[in-house]
């Protein structure tokens, strides 16, 4: 193993460094808070010759993802990044390019969705892409952001997969937080991730082809969609293969779900992304108080590693699935997926609680984790549990008073 | 005034080579397909068409393609950014990755008037702004044809569409004017911009021949008589296309090096009625009673247009 350098990087900078070390050749971009630092950094690197290829300022995320997809279909290593409303605006293109089966890595810097408009994070944006056929890796730390981008290209470009990989990081909490990140030696990166050669036919004059042609009839449509399904499912094995190779090169091993103090845990928090760090800290504090808590962190979210999740959660009495998202009228988006993977499991937990918290960047603090434990211990605890207490209500009441005051004046 | 000095003088000068094989899923008598067929003759086989959702999407239905070149179906608003990605990538591969020049492609967008004027309009403007090196072919049948003929921003005043029918309260049908896409695109100064008609094959071919050797956005609007939507027999396509030119309703022109030149001029403009009366979409202007005011307005608008150039 060659020496790496360790530098302090924000999550956004780590993403830009990931793209740089992957030797990306094409970046179509459109700015959105809190993603801008990524595209600004890459723009500079293309402009000063650090990166070889082209950075194109696009006119919308719809256009940006479309250009990224067609570039992938024409044979270069593509990177792009977005967030929140940008993901929604580009949604049609995202469904389109996953169907084109073009490899690339997309970084999403999570930010809650309007309305109301806000800049702070939750996961409704990334989870809106849940069903469009992207591979999804969710990062907790800046190092994971960097590493997942390198791993992401290996998965995306694998002949058994050929799909875009989305790496998710939380806006603000991770995008603007500096952490030490190990940047490996370039030679070592190249031996893990060689320069790009397309594994599928790409557009050029000697190879005319029709791609993404319309189909008539459900059976033909189904054939294509099932191929996509198989490719996406292949990505779980591919992730594990790539992770092992990654460990060989860089000494860090990633499994689809991370288990933190899980062995003897009676209470398990299921979390993802940067707030998992808060969860881990709470677990350690709870254990000091004699409460056997543990945490399961989701890393690979698509394909959904149901078996790995089931075997990790089996045998634990009480589980709380903390969703930093909200499907109004239903609750948490990942909750039913976790429950589904446990349904056929004989040793499944006695209680699986759905928790909704962290919406729009709202903190989840130690008291919240304690409230979850207490709720899990109640015999008739309602589900979902909303992490929204009397303090939050009175805080909002104060704002409403001001709003009414203004009404009265005008 | 510059005169188009074309390479083709007579019909028999045109290439016998075809880049679109016959037998596509498009309607018989489609004027736009005839325009594209002749345009591609000039461009050669090394092309990639980025297609917007619309009538021409039916050109390639899996597992068939009638094209000698490549095809990428995109979305209704996405063919131009897709062209950007392909163009950028070919440039990157030729510059840095040793792709030979002979592997280069003419990147062509094929989109209807709905995509061009409405849903894909912004993305197209952005690509002209970026000076994207591509050819844009808009087949203009003046409505959302593939979905059954609803109003687009290209639907002309006085025409009936499924979403602007002629009623007692709205006798004219479409009560707003066609968007002037030529002038809007011209404002962004693309390297080349032309309108073409399938009834003027020599003019059309010469324009594609000229555009082929230029670099930058090369924009075409092709008058596309539509038997199913406009309501006429497929065999009448050429006659309708000719009347559109002869009445002055459809000006055949080009914009190049800062000047607009009418490349085919009607000698003596026929009354617009000659064009209108043959089509079902204008029948309400003649039956059950004549709508002289509406017909008069259409005529005035045509006269006003030509007065600028006479």
Q: What's the short version?
A:
Chain A is of the alpha/beta class and 410 residues long. Chain A has 14 helices and 16 strands.
Cα(first) to Cα(last) distance of chain B is 13 Å
Strand content of chain A: 15-25%
Give the fraction of residues assigned to helices of chain A: 40-55%
Shape of chain B: globular
The third-level CATH topology of chain B is Rossmann fold
Measured between the Cα atoms of the first and last residue of chain A, the distance is 69 Å
CATH homologous superfamily placement of the largest domain in chain A: Thiamin diphosphate (ThDP)-binding fold, Pyr/PP domains
Order of SSEs of chain B: HEEHEHHEHEHEHHEEHH
CATH superfamily of chain B: Thiamin diphosphate (ThDP)-binding fold, Pyr/PP domains
**Radius of gyration of chain B using CA atoms only:** 19 Å
**Average predicted confidence as pLDDT of chain A:** 97
CATH topology of the largest domain in chain A: Rossmann fold
Side-by-side strand order of the widest sheet of chain A: 10-12-11-14-15-16
**Strand/helix succession of chain A:** EHEHEHEHHEHEHEEHEHEEHEEHEHEHEH
Integer count of domains of chain A:
2
DSSP, total strands of chain A = 16
Structural class, judged by helices and strands of chain A? alpha/beta
CATH class of the largest domain in chain A: Alpha Beta
What is the second-level CATH architecture of the largest domain in chain A? 3-Layer(aba) Sandwich
């Amino acid at each position: 193993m060659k020496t790496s350098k360790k530098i302090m990087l924000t999550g956004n900078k780590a993403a830009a460094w990931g793209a740089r070390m992957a030797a990306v050749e094409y970046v179509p971009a459109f700015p959105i808070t809190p993603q801008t630092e990524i595209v600004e950094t890459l723009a500079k690197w293309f402009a000063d010759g650090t990166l070889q290829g082209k950075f194109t300022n696009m006119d919308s995320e719809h256009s940006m993802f479309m250009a990224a997809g067609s570039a992938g279909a024409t044979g270069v290593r593509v990177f792009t990044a977005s967030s929140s409303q940008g993901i929604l605006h580009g949604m049609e293109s995202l469904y389109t390019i996953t169907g084109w089966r073009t490899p690339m890595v997309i970084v999403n810097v999570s930010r809650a969705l309007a309305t109301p408009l806000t800049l702070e994070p939750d996961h409704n944006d990334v989870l809106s892409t849940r069903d469009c056929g992207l591979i999804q890796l969710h990062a907790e730390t800046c190092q994971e952001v960097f590493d997942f981008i390198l791993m992401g290209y290996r998965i995306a470009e694998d002949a058994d997969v050929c799909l875009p990989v989305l790496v998710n990081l939380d806006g603000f909490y991770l995008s603007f937080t500096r952490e030490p990140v190990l940047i490996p030696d370039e030679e070592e990166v190249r031996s893990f991730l060689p320069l790009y050669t397309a594994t599928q036919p790409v557009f050029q004059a000697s190879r005319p082809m029709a791609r993404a042609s319309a189909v008539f009839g459900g059976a033909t449509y189904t054939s294509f969609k099932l191929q996509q399904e198989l490719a996406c499912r292949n990505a779980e094995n591919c992730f594990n293969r790539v992770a092992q190779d990654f460990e060989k090169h860089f000494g860090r091993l990633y499994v689809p779900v991370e288990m933190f103090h899980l062995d003897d845990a009676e209470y398990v928090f299921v979390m993802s992304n940067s707030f998992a760090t808060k969860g881990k800290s709470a677990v350690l504090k709870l254990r000091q108080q004699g409460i056997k808590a543990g945490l399961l962190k989701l890393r690979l979210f698509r394909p959904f590693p149901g078996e790995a999740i089931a075997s990790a959660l089996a045998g634990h009495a009480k589980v709380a699935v903390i969703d930093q998202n909200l499907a109004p009228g239903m609750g948490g988006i990942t909750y039913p997926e976790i429950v589904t993977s446990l349904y056929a499991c004989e040793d499944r937990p006695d209680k699986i609680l759905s928790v909704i918290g962290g919406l729009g960047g709202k903190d989840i603090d130690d008291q919240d984790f304690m409230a979850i434990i207490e709720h899990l211990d109640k015999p008739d605890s309602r589900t979902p549990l909303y992490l929204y207490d009397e303090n939050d209500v009175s805080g909002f009441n104060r704002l409403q008073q001001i709003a009414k005051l203004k009404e009265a004046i005008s | 005034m510059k005169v188009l000095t074309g390479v083709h003088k007579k019909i028999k000068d045109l290439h016998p080579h075809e880049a679109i094989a016959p037998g596509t899923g498009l309607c018989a008598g489609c004027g736009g397909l005839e325009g594209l067929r002749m345009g591609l003759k000039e461009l050669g086989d090394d092309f990639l068409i980025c297609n917007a959702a619309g009538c021409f999407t039916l050109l390639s239905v899996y597992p068939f393609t009638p094209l000698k070149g490549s095809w990428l179906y995109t979305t209704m608003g996405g063919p131009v950014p897709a062209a950007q990605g392909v163009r950028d990538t070919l440039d990157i591969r030729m510059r840095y990755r040793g792709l030979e020049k002979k592997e280069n492609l003419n990147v062509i967008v094929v989109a209807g008037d709905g995509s061009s004027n409405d849903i894909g309009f912004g993305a197209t403007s952005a690509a002209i702004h970026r000076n994207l090196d591509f050819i844009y072919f808009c087949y203009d049948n003046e409505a959302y044809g593939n979905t059954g003929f609803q109003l687009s921003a290209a639907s002309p005043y006085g025409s009936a569409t499924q979403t602007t029918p002629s009623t007692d309260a709205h006798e004219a049908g479409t009560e707003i004017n066609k968007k002037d896409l030529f002038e809007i695109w011209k404002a962004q100064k693309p390297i080349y911009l032309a309108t073409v008609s399938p009834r003027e094959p020599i003019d059309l071919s010469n324009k594609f021949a000229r555009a082929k050797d230029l670099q930058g956005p090369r924009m075409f609007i092709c008058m596309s008589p539509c038997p199913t939507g406009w309501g006429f027999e497929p065999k009448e396509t050429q006659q309708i296309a000719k009347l559109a030119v002869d009445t002055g309703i459809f000006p055949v022109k080009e914009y190049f090096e800062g000047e607009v030149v009418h490349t085919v001029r009607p000698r003596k403009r026929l009354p617009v009625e000659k064009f209108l009366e043959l089509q079902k979409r204008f029948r309400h202007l003649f039956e059950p009673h004549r709508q002289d005011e509406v017909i008069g307005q259409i005529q005035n608008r045509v006269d006003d247009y030509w007065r600028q150039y006479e």
